[in-house]
Amino acid sequence: MSTASELPEDFLSSGTTAPLLSVKDLSVTFPTDDGDVRAVRNVSFDLNPGDVLGIVGESGSGKSVSSMAIMGLLPKNAIVEGSIRYRGEELNGRTYKQMQPFRSKHISMIFQDPMTSLNPVYTVGWQLAETYRAHHDVSKKAAWAKAVEALELVGIPQPDRRAAQYPHEFSGGMRQRVVIAMAIINDPSVIIADEPTTALDVTVQAQILDTMLRLQAETDAAIVMITHDLGVVAGMVNRVQVMYGGTVVESGPVDDVFEQPRMPYTVGLLGSVPNPASLGKRLTPIKGAPPSLVNLPSGCSFSPRCPLVAEVCHEWEPELEEAGPNHTTRCHRWEHLATVDQPQRLFLHDEIGTVENPAVFAAARPDESLEVTAAHGSLVTDEEAK
Ligand SMILES: Nc1ncnc2c1ncn2[C@@H]1O[C@H](COP(=O)(O)OP(=O)(O)O)[C@@H](O)[C@H]1O
Ligand code: SF4
Ligand SMILES: [Mg+2]
C-alpha cells in the first residue's frame, strides 16, 4: 500500500473525481470485559470541497469515535471496519505513523478541549510553527511568520505579541482560536471539528463559528461539524446527519431535516434543545436514556423511547431509506410520522403531565385503540391497559 508521501504531487491536489472524503459502512467495536461496545455501526457519508456537514446526536452516540477513526487516532484495541477514502486512497488499516502524512496537511481536527491540541510548556507561536514545519521544508523564521499570519487569520489581536505567549495566557475563546489556527495552518482540505465551541459561552461560540465559516469560505475546505447542539448546525451546515446508538438515523439537507424530520428521534431532539425552530415553544426532553452499546435493543435502537413505537419496531432494525430528495431516515414508520400534525407534540406528555390534545396521539397510532390516562398523561394502549 502506498502512503500519501509516495503519491504523485498532483494526485492529492487534483486529478481524481473521487469525493474528497468518502466514508462507507464505518463500524467501530471496542472489545471490553463487559462485552463488545458497538460504538459506531455502518456510518457512511461523502464530502466534497466546500461541503459543511453537521453530525448531531446526544452524548455517547458515536460522534467522536467516528471522527477519531477517520483520523486514525483510536486506541489499538479498536476494531475498525468499513472504508475511509481520502481522494480515493484507503485510510482504514493504516498505522498511526502511516496516517501522519495525512493528518494536519490533508485532514485536520479541532477538539472540544483546546489543551488536547496545545502543549502548556511551549509558546503558541512555537507550536504553530512546528506544526507547519512538519509538512513544509522552511526556515524557523519563515515558519514563525506563518504562525503569526495564522493567528491573525483566526482573529487574534496583536498576533505578533500573542505568538510569544503560552496557552495559559489566553482566554478560553482565544485558546480555541489558536487551536483553529493550528488546524488550518497546513491548509487542509478537510477539517473535522468535534464540539469546538461546547465549552465556551454563547457569545464567544458565535464568534468562533463565524470565524470558522469565514475561513471555510476563503479556503474552500470541507468541514465536518460535530455537535450535540442543533443551534450550531442550523446556522452553519448544508447537510446534517443525526446519530443515535452509534448509527445514522436521519440524514439530509439541513432545512429539510429541521422542517420535515422523518425520524421520531430527530423530532425529539428538535424539541429538547433550543434552536431557531423551537423559538417561543416549550422545550420537551426525550424521556429515558440512550441505549447500551453492549446490549443494543432488538429492532430499532430508539424503540424504548419512541412515542410512535409499534410491534414491527421490536422485530428488526430499519434500513436507511429514502424519505425525500437526498433525505434518508431509519424508521419503519416515517411515512406515518409525515402525516402527524405538529409532531413535536408526540413528546409533550413527558413534560406537561397532561395530554393537551389526545387526537394527536390517536392520529399517530391509528392502528391501535388508545386510551389516554389523564392523571399522568401517559399513553396506554387497550392491550397494555388490560
Ligand atoms: N476506548 C473505548 N473503549 C470502550 N468504549 C469506548 C471507548 N471510546 C469510546 N467508547 C464508547 O463509545 C461510545 C461512543 O462514544 P463517543 O463517540 O465518544 O460519543 P459522542 O462523541 O457521540 O458523545 C460511548 O458509549 C463510549 O463510552
Ligand atoms: S422504527 Fe419504530 S421505534 Fe424506531 S423510530 Fe421509527 S417508529 Fe420509533
Ligand atoms: Mg464526543
From TrEMBL:
Residues 21-270 form the ABC transporter domain. SUPFAM superfamilies: P-loop containing nucleoside triphosphate hydrolases. GO terms for molecular function: ATP binding; ATP hydrolysis activity. GO terms for biological process: peptide transport. Gene3D superfamilies: P-loop containing nucleotide triphosphate hydrolases. It is a peripheral membrane protein. It is found in: Cell membrane. It comes from the Bacteria. Belongs to the ABC transporter superfamily. This is Peptide/nickel transport system ATP-binding protein. It comes from Lentzea xinjiangensis.
